[in-house]
Amino acid sequence: xxxxxxxxxxxxxxxxxxxxxxxxxxxxxxxxxxxxxxxxxxxxxxxxxxxxxxxxxxxxxxxxxxxxxxxxxxxxxxxxxxxxxxxxxxxxxxxxxxxxx
Length: 101
What we know:
Largest sheet: 4 strands, antiparallel
Strand content: over 45%
């Protein structure tokens, strides 16, 4: 069974057993989470879309905080002596989908 689920404003295509990185979710390693905003399901060729979908994606948190790659925003104006450097690392959570019910 395949499902498209919306997690923190982003859409992910998942199936049972998949592990993926999603935007940070509050919780500790080993916690169970449920995502009820399922946009589409495909069950052996039977496709449900929109309001016809009545599935819930259940997952387990594997790693509660994973930092992404460092992103640098550097601004400079030539001949003015103006330099500004900002950087950040986006936080993610690694989850594993246990079932789609």
